[in-house]
Design brief:
18% of the residues lie in helices and 45% in strands. The chain is an alpha+beta fold. The strands form two sheets. It has a 16-stranded antiparallel β-barrel with strand order 1-3-4-5-6-7-8-11-12-13-14-17-18-19-20-21. The longest helix has 78 residues.
């Protein structure tokens, strides 16, 4: 075989062999762009989805921030806005109580209900049933007789006639002026009739005016406690008054001016005198033309208070062509001294001439008439001291002593007039709930007249008192 024949036979095989790899390569070459295209589309789709997801996440974050901002704004608004009041219960009335008052007038009401019960024992005669001395401690009603036929007695009394109530109307005007009207009453006025006023059936008592006044800024006009009296110094008592003989105690009509610690007043004049050799006789003569004049200074602090009061007055007597006048005067020191959180001392010392009706519920008189109808002043010294202790927030106790001494001209008055009186008191007051007091007080009292006779009283005074 020639070389030419060999080439002729093997050439087609080689060509076939060359065509097969070329075809595979061609197929691979043709497939690669398709695969690349498919892969690029898939990636683009994934990228688009990622972008969409990112956009949705960003939108959710933005919405959450908006919601948080709104919540913060609402909370801030709620914190700054006033708290809405709870729905009120239906009112008693839909119109103002004080319809005739100035615009903006505030009306208030208060008082207390008080049941008093006492057992009284005297050694020189009985205190008359239904009299003032049976209701509370009044030293001038202590029986002093000395007669062999007079005997002491024991009596039990109960009553609610010292219950009290008051009304007030306060107004602050646009001009800056302040107005206040005040009315205060109790039931210590006796019976309305002879039958209903006694203890047989209904125990009915009449209304009694205690105070009635109006204040305008620094001025006060009406009936109130005398400016010569320091009510803030009075002890905490179960008895209506307590240290009666040592206390300045007067309510009357007056015109008063108060500026800071100072107060001044002109008050209703009334001369109480003993007739010539009248002993305990007491005559009230309304013949004075000059009002009683008072001045008071009061210092206050965490330590308590201290007050000094002064009184000057005209005493006047007139009967037909016989008339005379004299000058009365007095000075009173009083106050309360705090001894820590649980204790305090209360005191009053009063001295003067011709001021008998101001002290001890007129225990003695201002003056006495001589045989010619001239007035002679009766001098006095009186006072009390008391200690108050709080055993607990609900239980407190008081111990106090009181005394009054009079300088009588016995040649004019006689020997049956009061020379002195004194008393000692001890009490416990329990407050189981706010505004409700249950109290018991033991009282020993003595009155002495100028002839040396003495009468004594022993009393257990109790009360139930609800303040409102």
């Amino acid at each position: 075989m020639t070389f030419t024949n060999v080439l002729t036979r093997t050439a087609p095989r080689c060509a076939a062999m060359r065509r097969r790899p070329l075809t595979a390569a061609l197929l691979v070459a043709l497939a690669l762009p398709g695969l690349a295209f498919a892969q690029t589309a898939k990636e683009k789709e994934l990228e688009a989805r990622v972008v969409e997801l990112e956009r949705m996440v960003q939108q959710l974050v933005s919405q959450q921030q908006q919601v948080q901002t709104q919540v913060t704004e609402v909370k801030a608004a709620q914190a700054s806005a006033p708290v809405a009041a709870a729905p009120a219960k239906p009112g008693i009335q839909s119109t103002p109580i004080s319809t005739a008052g100035n615009p903006g007038t505030r009306f208030s009401y208060g008082g207390f209900i008080k049941l008093d019960a006492s057992v009284t024992q005297t050694n020189d005669g009985d205190i008359a049933d239904g009299s003032v001395g049976r209701l509370f401690y009044v030293p001038k009603t202590i029986p002093v007789g000395g007669a062999a036929t007079r005997e002491g007695g024991s009596d039990t009394d109960m009553g609610a006639n010292f219950s009290r109530f008051w009304f007030a109307a306060d107004t602050d005007l646009e001009s800056g002026d302040k107005l206040k009207g005040y009315l205060e009453f109790d039931l210590y006025g006796g019976g309305s009739t002879a039958f209903t006023g006694n203890e047989v059936a209904t125990n009915t008592y009449a209304l009694t005016l205690r105070q009635a006044y109006v204040t305008w800024n620094k001025w006060m006009a009406g009936q109130a406690w005398s400016n010569f009296q320091d009510t803030a110094a009075l002890p905490d008592t179960v008895d209506f008054l307590g240290p009666t003989e040592g206390t300045v105690f007067v309510r009357q009509a007056q015109l008063r001016y108060t500026s800071g610690p100072w107060s001044f007043s002109i008050e209703n004049p009334e001369t109480v005198y003993t007739p010539f050799r009248g002993n305990m006789a007491q005559v009230a003569g309304d013949d004075g033309a000059v009002p009683d004049v008072t001045a008071r200074y009061t210092a206050k602090g965490d330590w308590g208070h201290f007050s000094v009061g002064a009184l000057a007055r005209q005493l006047k007597y007139q009967s037909g062509r016989v008339n005379d006048s004299n000058t009365g005067y007095g000075l009173s020191l009083s106050g309360k001294w705090n001894l820590g959180a649980k204790d305090d001392l209360r005191y009053m010392l009063t001295t003067g001439s011709g001021i008998g009706r101001y002290v001890g519920l007129a225990l003695n008189n201002d003056a006495v008439l001589d045989a010619s109808g001239d007035l002679e002043n009766i001098d006095l010294v009186s006072g009390f001291v008391g200690w108050r202790h709080a055993f607990s927030p609900k239980l407190r106790g008081n111990l106090f002593y009181s005394r009054a001494e009079y300088d009588n001209k016995t040649a004019l008055t006689g020997l049956g007039i009061t020379k002195s009186a004194q008393s000692a008191h001890i009490n416990l007051i329990y407050t189981p709930i706010p505004k409700l007091d249950l109290g018991a007080e033991y009282i020993w009292g003595q009155r002495e007249i100028e002839n040396g006779d003495r009468g004594e009283i022993n009393r257990l005074q109790t009360h139930v008192k609800y303040s409102f």
